[in-house]
Write a structure and sequence with these properties.
The complex is a heterodimer of chains A (210) and B (196). With 210 residues, chain A is an alpha+beta fold. Chain A has two domains: 105 residues, Cyclin A, domain 1 (Orthogonal Bundle); 82 residues, SH3 type barrels, CATH 2.30.30.50. Helix content of chain A is 30%, strand content 18%. Chain A has seven helices and five strands; from the N terminus they run H-H-H-H-H-E-E-H-E-H-E-E. Chain A has a five-stranded antiparallel beta sheet. In chain A, helix 1 packs parallel to helix 4 and helix 2 crosses helix 4. Chain A is globular. Chain A starts with 27 loop residues before the first helix and ends with a strand. Chain B is mainly α and 196 residues long. The longest helix of chain B is centred in the N-terminal third of the chain and has 14 residues. In chain B, the strands form two sheets. In chain B, strands 1-4 form a two-stranded parallel ribbon. A two-stranded parallel ribbon of chain B has the order 2-3. In chain B, helix 3 crosses helix 4. Chain B starts with 9 loop residues before the first helix and ends in an 8-residue tail after the last helix. The chains are: A alpha+beta (210), B mainly alpha (196). At the A-B interface, helix 1, helix 4, helix 5, strand 2 and strand 3 of A face helix 1, helix 2, helix 7, helix 8 and helix 9 of B. Strand 4 of chain A pairs parallel with strand 3 of chain B.
Chain lengths: 210, 196
């Protein structure tokens, strides 16, 4: 989905708030949210694609305004409510106030491959174009490369298509490629010479560049 | 009052869902604590630094690392979740590599640990692919125009580690002493010149 999580190229966030070193968890609740994310996804009967998508479905304002591990908390709790493990009323009563959850899943597994494919159709050096389909559900094809042309620089093994996995489409294997995009192909006049971005993309995201 | 929307405080929300799952007998916090402890004690950039130092002193290891990183990293005992499909990208006088995850927070856990906050924050994720040279300069790493910047967006299964250049004047140093020079940031690519 073209969600707020799909941040590549969005302007206006200002400088990076870099720190030389920091603990993994700066507050105790972060450690507990991490622990909950590790355990809760399985309790909800969910997989990795569903977990990622549960945070992507957060209200955009909450997503941007919240600390990272609030994404884990909100996402995994949404999965637990959707799976019927807990109810929204139950958690709000226990928390003593509103407990915002992510918005409903709008994805459809029909958008995705249904049969395993492990043999790579493209090779290193091939020109490819990313399909421009902007699905409403989960995908790992960032918005900033959809419709753009690039060159395959590496062929990786096949792995499960997240778009299917995240919406009950099962585990369907498909080859993965690292595709190189020139900065100017992505950003036009706003791009720069001497900069390239490599994005790892499943084969079902790509089409031959005619 | 807990804010403009009266949302329950984050601590209360975490405690609520955790308590309910524990009461239902679904969540084993003690078992999960062992995993979290493993992250805190065993994983971190010191592991990646050992990989880099080995590559600097052993040309054959360097070749194996660049050709098949997951296996080469496993030689030093590092592997596991978020490190099952590793690719190492090498900095050269003509090339600088930078790693990002624009969609979430993908990061090579076995070699670098859990990512720092800034790596997961919108500013880094949005700008690394759009204006990497400017972003790096703002972060104190000036990459001159004659050096190509290659950004790697970890959008699928592969997790990336940058192999920084060995600093000049370190010919006499041992592998252990070299590993001390390798920083977390140099293996993400937000730092280029390591200092002795």
């Amino acid at each position: 989905m073209d969600g707020v999580h799909d941040l590549g190229g969005i302007a206006g966030f200002g400088p990076v708030e870099w720190t030389p070193d920091e603990p993994y968890f700066s507050e105790e609740w972060e450690r507990r949210a991490f622990r909950l994310g590790l355990g809760g996804t399985g309790i909800a009967g969910a997989n990795g694609g569903m977990f990622r998508h549960s945070a992507e479905r957060m209200d955009p304002a909450q997503y941007l305004d919240s600390p990272y591990y609030e994404h884990w908390l909100t996402g995994v709790t949404t999965l637990l409510v959707e799976a019927g493990v807990v109810t929204a009323e139950e958690i709000e009563e226990r928390a003593g106030g509103p407990f915002p959850l992510s918005r409903p899943d709008r994805g459809r597994p029909t958008d995705t491959p249904t049969d395993d494919r492990t043999e790579a159709r493209f090779g290193v050096g091939d020109r490819v174009r990313v399909r421009k389909w902007h699905p409403l559900g989960h995908t790992r094809a960032p918005r900033y490369v959809q419709g753009r042309e690039g060159v395959v620089v590496r062929v990786d093994g096949a792995a499960n298509v997240p778009d299917a996995e995240a919406h009950g489409g099962g585990f369907v294997k498909n080859p993965i490629y690292s595709v190189r995009f020139a900065s100017r192909e992505l950003w036009g006049e706003g791009g720069s010479d001497g900069e390239a971005v490599h994005v790892d993309l499943w084969e079902c995201y790509l089409e031959e560049d005619a | 009052m807990t804010g403009p929307d009266h949302v329950a405080p984050i601590e209360a929300r975490v405690a609520a869902i955790e308590a309910i799952l524990v009461e239902k007998g679904l969540l084993d916090t003690a078992k999960l604590d062992e995993i979290v402890q493993h992250f805190e004690e065993d994983l971190g950039p010191r592991n990646g630094a050992k990989v880099v130092a080995r590559a600097w002193v052993d040309p054959e290891y360097r070749q194996r690392l660049l050709a098949a990183a997951t296996a080469a990293i496993a030689e030093l005992g590092f592997g596991g979740p978020e490190g099952d499909h590793m690719v190492v990208v090498e900095n050269t006088p003509a090339v600088h590599n930078l790693v990002v995850c624009t969609l979430c927070s993908c990061y090579p856990w076995p070699t670098l640990g859990l990512p720092p906050k800034w790596y997961k924050a919108p500013a880094y994720r949005s700008r690394a692919v759009r204006e990497p040279r400017l972003l790096l300069a703002e972060m104190g790493t000036v990459i001159t125009d004659d050096v190509e910047i290659r950004v790697w967006d970890s959008s699928a299964e592969v997790r990336y580690l940058v192999l920084p250049q060995r600093p000049a004047g370190t010919e006499g140093l041992s592998e252990e002493a070299l590993a001390v020079l390798v920083t977390r940031d140099s293996m993400i690519g937000v730092e280029r010149q390591l200092t002795t």
